[in-house]
Amino acid sequence: MNRIDAILARGRSDAVALHDRGRSLTYAAMDAQVSAVAGALQQRLAQGDRVALWLPKSLEAVVLTFAIARAGAVAVPVNPVLRSRQLGHILEDSGARLLVTHGARAAGLASLPCSMMTLEEDWAAMAASAPYAGEAPGGNALAALLYTSGSTGRPKGVMVTHANLLAGARSVAGYLGTAPDDRVLSVLPLSFDLGFSQLTTAFHAGASVVLLDYLTARDVVQAAARHRITQLAAVPPLWVQLAALEWPPAAIASMRTLSNSGGRLPAPTVRALRLMFPAARLHLMYGLTEAFRSTTLPPALVDAHPDSIGRAIPDAEILVVRPDGSLTADGEPGELVHCGPLVTMGYWQDPVRTAERFRPAPPASKLGGTAVWSGDTVVRDAQGLLRFIGRADETIKTMGTRVSPTEIEELAYQSGVVEQAVALGVADETAGQRIRLVVSAVDGVAEAAAEQALRGHMKREAAAYMQPASIIWMDHLPTSANGKLDRAAIRERFGA
């Protein structure tokens, strides 16, 4: 088995693989539907073509993801909350040959750089097509481009191979203890690496996945009770909300495994979850899209070390190094470097940023090869447990999602009322970070009118998690000696 779609054969054929709002597919039925949709795609695509999916979480979206892999193409899942402007960048950057979306979304698109299919018009025929004929590449062939934002530009596509996905599924299923009788609640976007890997982890173990597009945290609690969920993964902002709610006894009794990634989980929330779910295993994890997951804190250590991100997961080698690549001593801060089979292939058509993040493993590495130099500062204690200190770059991580300051600033400039702009991440206990915009208005526009126009523009053009929590207006932003905006001075003054 060297292709990610072959993972569907691991589940018992008559076991339910997928639930979606009253609909379900057994492993055998899902495998057959994947083959049919792959057959339809085979008529339109060449191997290696990129297929963008701009869809809400659904049975069709999951089937399409695995069908794209079976057809030898590359899936490009797009977060459904993104606006057409962000979609356009991803389509252009990925060179997508095909976009699959809903009719309502398609109606709002002007011009596209690729062809388009909608579920309303094309799904029935795709699902009824003849099965895929042929053998698509797997192993180190690309399976997906997962777009993530950085601090210096627009979202970049992380190149994920079939081998990466299979290694990740095996590793995560192993340390979470995922079993065929688990029922996994999928609440995270499938475009998010943790949301994506939830599917592969569950299917590797032959478990059942329940898809949920939720509006409120209470929807998650109700779904957990209704489906007797045994595994739930979330990001810190959602966990904070979930820990504050009253859970039905039946939902608490069925839960076996809780996991967190996408930022530090506040210690009070850790304690609240441990009290609410005393029999469940709580995994505090750290990961980055460039390598999926990296570390996990064994559940037995959570009570004593609630601020730790743990140790390397199976099949990963995690080192803490100094700027010269030598290993740090216990208690000495250093950069987290991830080595091993979970390391992806770099950023799509971006050799400069790839060379910055994907470099030869440090000399002390036992696995060698290319490593991900995370840019994140951590400290290792005498027990080998890691504690996250901070990010070396300027990426804003809010509500479990990485946001590029540059992208926020570009949107501000596009409003037409902003002369200068700097986006900052401000620490927030619930969201991890909130976005603060420091701006100056163009000449002739009053501050009140400029703020109204800017906020209106952001609401129209940016996803909810990209909205600034606060906007600070200045006559002129400070500049450095070479005439550039002095980001360090602005961050020092307004970033607290």
Which key features would you list for this structure?
31% helix, 25 strands, GMP Synthetase, Chain A, domain 3, five-stranded antiparallel sheet, 2 domains, alpha/beta, Rossmann fold, 496 residues, globular
Query: What strand order characterises the main sheet?
Result: 2-1-10-9-11-12-13-14-15
Number of helices: 15
- The tally of beta strands, per DSSP, is 25
Termini separation comes to 50 Å
Return residue spans where pLDDT drops below 50 for at least 5 consecutive residues.
none
Q: According to CATH, what is the topology of the largest domain?
A: Rossmann fold
Counting helices, strands and paired strands, the structural category is alpha/beta
Strand content: 25-35%
Fourth-level CATH superfamily of the largest domain: ANL, N-terminal domain
Tell me about the biggest sheet?
9 strands, mixed
CATH class of the largest domain: Alpha Beta
Shape, principal axes of CA atoms:
globular
CATH architecture of the largest domain: 3-Layer(aba) Sandwich
Q: Level of helix content?
A: 25-40%
Quick check: average pLDDT? 92
The number of domains is 2
Radius of gyration: 23 Å
- What oligomeric state do these chains adopt? single chain
